């Protein structure tokens, strides 16, 4: 599995799908409430990316008032970027410019110390860009457009989450930029996980691709926890899938023995299956890092099985032990994904435990 950041694409558009009109002034699509939301989202990511054309036409600062500003990233084919643009002159953060190979020498000379210029191939290879960002420690990337950038990321199927804000008016100008252009987009329906009114605009939040699969499979693990027999310990469900998202095994706490943990039950059904080398294990609860009932923890079982990817909903509270499963798995080089929006369902299944509400 190639590592890349979690990609969140964000856009505001008119009812007829336009990002702007053809006037000289920038069309305001968002409400004050939505501007505040976007600022908070920016503060929660590691980097924010816009296309070079957005820098030339809108001259954005790409800073956050709600918290630390993210690293700034742009893509360019032509290399036509002004070092005096606010992208380069504002904010004490790193600026990364991924340029098509032919543009790299001249662009590096013109930008100097204003940014780090990275060869992104010819043409610009978005997968190469994302791999490089991951190597630089970028775990969450926010993509704010414009149209060509949104089209590129969506057609390359690298968007995990889409925030689409719809403004209550039409633009109706054929020459105006649309949210996306023509292209071969991934087939299938996105997963709608939230709708929210923000003043007079509406936020539609979708999950796509890997993120949608993770959400669906993790919810299955959460539902498995409901099958656990009555117990004085955590009620947990687990699902293991292969690289193609086929379910290999499932398990839940106490399935065959009162001391069973969900992850070890699912793993025991597979033995030394070679498919585990590319598998993902979904657990409603963070895998245990200490336990009294048996000598081997679920974290160690996962490491011994060679599973490279772990997704869970709720961090284990310090009811019995101080849990460090996620940290130990990450330290061992495993990809660990936490989906806290499903945590309330897991807490509800474990309300029988002291201190859990």
UniProtKB/TrEMBL annotation:
<dbReference type="InterPro" id="IPR002125">
    <property type="entry name" value="CMP_dCMP_dom"/>
</dbReference>
<comment type="function">
    <text>Converts 2,5-diamino-6-(ribosylamino)-4(3h)-pyrimidinone 5'-phosphate into 5-amino-6-(ribosylamino)-2,4(1h,3h)-pyrimidinedione 5'-phosphate.</text>
</comment>
<dbReference type="Pfam" id="PF01872">
    <property type="entry name" value="RibD_C"/>
</dbReference>
<comment type="pathway">
    <text>Cofactor biosynthesis; riboflavin biosynthesis; 5-amino-6-(D-ribitylamino)uracil from GTP: step 2/4.</text>
</comment>
<dbReference type="Pfam" id="PF00383">
    <property type="entry name" value="dCMP_cyt_deam_1"/>
</dbReference>
<comment type="similarity">
    <text>In the N-terminal section; belongs to the cytidine and deoxycytidylate deaminase family.</text>
</comment>
<keyword id="KW-0521">NADP</keyword>
<feature type="domain" description="CMP/dCMP-type deaminase">
    <location>
        <begin position="212"/>
        <end position="336"/>
    </location>
</feature>
<dbReference type="GO" id="GO:0008835">
    <property type="term" value="F:diaminohydroxyphosphoribosylaminopyrimidine deaminase activity"/>
</dbReference>
<dbReference type="InterPro" id="IPR016193">
    <property type="entry name" value="Cytidine_deaminase-like"/>
</dbReference>
<dbReference type="InterPro" id="IPR050765">
    <property type="entry name" value="Riboflavin_Biosynth_HTPR"/>
</dbReference>
<keyword id="KW-0560">Oxidoreductase</keyword>
<dbReference type="GO" id="GO:0009231">
    <property type="term" value="P:riboflavin biosynthetic process"/>
</dbReference>
<dbReference type="GO" id="GO:0008703">
    <property type="term" value="F:5-amino-6-(5-phosphoribosylamino)uracil reductase activity"/>
</dbReference>
<protein>
    <recommendedName>
        <fullName>Riboflavin biosynthesis protein RibD</fullName>
        <ecNumber>3.5.4.26</ecNumber>
    </recommendedName>
</protein>
<comment type="similarity">
    <text>In the C-terminal section; belongs to the HTP reductase family.</text>
</comment>
<dbReference type="InterPro" id="IPR002734">
    <property type="entry name" value="RibDG_C"/>
</dbReference>
<dbReference type="InterPro" id="IPR024072">
    <property type="entry name" value="DHFR-like_dom_sf"/>
</dbReference>
